[in-house]
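ugh ok fine here u go
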Amino acid sequence: MRPSKCAGWSVVRRATFSAITAGEGSEPIRERFERLGVVVELPERLIDVAGAVSGCGPAIWALLAEAYVDAGIRYDLPAAQAATLVRETMAGTAALLT
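structure:
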């Protein structure tokens, strides 16, 4: 039996993170994950690091956004408008980073 070449894949899209091990016959799995978002292929040794970086990322960004909205409300912005401003600012910044 020939050993398969191992690599890790992670898919990050909004608040979703998944990791699988790549190898022979894994292309159908990769294709399914690509329907969810961008697939990043990594060496298996980096899967834990990728999970730490992107797995907690949505929670960190959500806390930042919540604090930003709260600050706006504290200075008399209506909550809905503060949330819209923060959300759109974050979305615009994300678009600039790509």
